[in-house]
Each structure stands twice: as structure tokens, then as C-alpha cells.
Design brief:
Length: about 350
């Protein structure tokens, strides 16, 4: 019997930042004038959603530097993408984009810092779907409500792939991994329970009936390095993280958690896990967010600034060098992805983790 599709779109660690990393907040420049509360947002008694059609990037006039919370350590692909996006905001608005790396509690610490800030479009945070879906399931102390935030822009939506190292394990494809598992426990690299790659691996090996054990780390780059070094048999990671390993021949992608084969690597046509009989569809998704009561027209202006910068040759060159495929959809699209994913995450949690 065909298994029910679990379409899980979750978060990884994409950042919007520039200029500095640390926990230092910028000082206000000219005093910001008080805004009149005349904007009506969706769901208010006075009217429907604010009309932001025609909003341009320069519709927003920031009076201070941008303060962006990132709930992950500096470095890696997240930091690279942070600097790309931050470069655009800095060039557009002439303000420094400062990133505060507030790690821990699956984003709850960074979110609490955002909550404590004055409501302003320069007060931002990079987040992922896991902070609203998986994190509350695995940590009952985390109680983040999607209604407390407004989403500015998508950042990343990309496929997750399963990688092996033929030179270390002799495994070259899914059938080879299954054959290996007949006599051996599969030791795989992933993030800790509550993270996306751990959930994916648990689902895949559970559905396949394969004996598997996780060796956890705090980043997919470390997981793939462990595969390439022969310390683990396989690992799941976003396509952009695995690109350099595939290019240098140290790793081979053997499956993708998508509805279609992955052809993003030259010379590879990576089959889906669906083709092996396991209907698990999963993509990482990351976004920029701010507080719910920030003026929607300011949010729309910042989103437009990101879109405008994405059309420049500078952005395209930087993105190409970073193996970054942007996903810059508007905040309402991002919010709907989160809402559509929440129930499915709960179903997966109940089946594979709940005792």
C-alpha cells in the first residue's frame, strides 16, 4: 500500500546579515519620528489587509542600522548568504546591517530578543519553519506563536539529498546501502533530534526497516565532512552544502527527498526516495521575519529592496559563487508554507518519536 506523502518543508540555517557578527546592537542615528497608527492589517475589525501594491524599496526610510538576529553560529553557507543579502540592504538604504548570532533553543532565544525590541522594520530575524513546527514538539518549553510575527521574504527553498562516499564504504547507490545494512548498522550524520535532517533520516530508515544510528553535529557541512572522512556511512544535507563534495568527487548523491529527480549536479540524475517506495517530500525553507505590528508597507519595501538587488549582476555573481539559489517569495507565501507544514510535522513526530 502506498504510504501517505509527508510533504515536509522545514528550516535550515539561512541568514540575512552584513558587516559584523556578534551581539552588539547599533545605536540610533537621528531620532525616529513617531508613526501614526493608521495602517489596517488583515483581520482587523476596521478593514481588510493593507494595500501594498506600488510600494517601492525607497518607500521605507530607516532611521537606524539594521539589527538582524540569526539563531545559528557564524560561518558556512548561512553566513555567506547573510552577507549577500545584507550587501543589498546596505547599498539600498545606506545603513549598516549588523547580525547578532543568538544561538540556542531552536531560535527561541533570538525570537525573545526580537520580541523585546521596539517594533520597527530594521529589527529583523532570520528563521526557519522548524522553530514553529518541530522545535515546539521536541521542547515543550518553546512556545512560539506564528501570530506574533510578520514575514518579510523567503530566502531559501532547496532540496535535501542523501550522500555516501563510495571510496570509504563501497556504497554507490540506494541498493548498495540496503545491501550494506543487511549485515551492518548504518551510522549516519545528522543534526540532533528535533532537527530536519534527523527527522528525515529517522523517517527514511524507519520506513525502509533499516537499522540505523545517528552521530549528531551542529551543521550539515560537518555531517558531510564526516561522510567524506569515513567516520559515518551517509548523511542528509541541502543541495548547496553538498555541491563542493560532489564536484571534487568525494561524495555521491544517491537520493533526493523531492517529487522529481535532482539534476542540479553536472553528470548526475539523482532518483527520488519516492522511486524506492517511500513517499517523503522535503525541502529546507528559510525566511526573514519581524514583529507582527511592524507597518506592512515598510515590510513590503524591504522585500522589494531584496528583489531589486537580486536582479543586479553583483547579486547574481555572488549567488553563483556561493551555490546559492534564492527563494525570495513574499511573506504571505512563506507563512502559508509554515501553516501547511505544521500538521504534517506533528504526524511525523507522533509516529517516529513520541513514546
Amino acid at each position: 500500500m502506498k504510504k501517505k506523502v509527508l510533504a515536509l518543508i522545514m528550516a535550515g540555517t539561512m541568514a540575512l546579515s552584513m558587516a559584523a557578527c556578534g551581539n552588539t546592537q547599533s545605536q540610533d542615528t537621528p531620532k525616529e519620528p513617531e508613526k501614526q497608527e493608521t495602517v489596517q492589517t488583515e483581520g482587523t475589525e476596521e478593514g481588510g489587509a493593507t494595500d501594498v501594491s506600488g510600494i517601492t524599496a525607497d518607500s521605507f526610510k530607516p532611521f537606524k542600522d539594521f539589527n538582524v538576529r540569526v539563531p545559528f553560529a557564524a560561518g558556512g553557507s548561512a553566513d555567506t548568504i547573510a552577507r549577500i543579502i545584507g550587501q543589498g540592504l546596505q547599498e539600498t538604504y545606506g545603513k549598516t546591517v549588523i547580525v547578532n548570532n543568538l544561538t540556542g533553543a531552536n531560535g527561541a532565544i533570538a525570537a525573545a530578543d526580537l520580541d523585546s525590541a521596539k517594533s520597527d522594520a530594521t529589527e529583523l530575524m532570520v528563521g526557519g519553519i522548524a522553530m514553529f513546527t518541530l522545535a515546539p514538539l521536541f521542547n515543550k518549553d518553546i512556545n512560539l506563536s506564528i501570530d506574533d510575527y510578520q514575514f518579510v521574504s523567503g530566502l531559501v527553498l532547496e532540496d535535501q539529498l542523501l550522500y555516501v562516499s563510495p571510496s570509504n564504504s563501497g556504497i554507490e547507490d540506494w541498493d548498495g546501502l540496503v545491501k550494506y545494512a543487511a549485515d551492518n548498522r548504518i551510522v549516519y550524520g545528522s543534526n540532533a533530534p528535533g532537527g530536519a535532517t534527523h527527522l528525515l533520516a529517522t523517517m527514511l530508515f524507519g520506513e525502509a526497516g533499516l537499522d540505523a544510528e545517528a552521530v549528531t553535529s551542529d551543521g550539515s557541512g560537518k555531517d558531510l565532512l564526516a561522510v567524506a572522512s569515513g567516520n559515518v556511512v551517509c548523511a542528509i544535507a541541502p543541495a548547496s552544502v553538498g555541491a563542493q563534495y560532489v564536484e571534487d568527487g568525494s561524495l555521491v548523491p544517491i537520493a533526493v527527498f523531492s517529487e522529481e529527480n535532482y539534476t542540479g549536479y553536472e553528470g548526475y540524475d539523482v532518483p527520488t526516495v519516492q522511486s524506492f517506495g517511500y513517499d517523503i517530500v522535503f525541502r529546507t525553507c528559510n525566511f526573514v521575519m519581524t514583529k507582527a505590528d511592524v507597518a506592512p508597507e515598510d515590510v513590503a519595501a524591504i522585500h522589494q529592496a531584496i528583489l531589486d538587488y537580486s536582479e543586479t549582476e553583483e547579486f547574481k555573481d555572488l549567488a553563483k559563487n556561493a551555490n546559492y539559489t534564492p527563494y525570495l517569495e513574499d511573506g504571505e507565501t512563506v507563512k502559508q508554507i509554515i501553516l501547511d507544514t505544521a500538521d504534517l510535522c506533528k504526524e511525523a513526530y507522533d509516529k517516529y518519536y513520541a513514546q
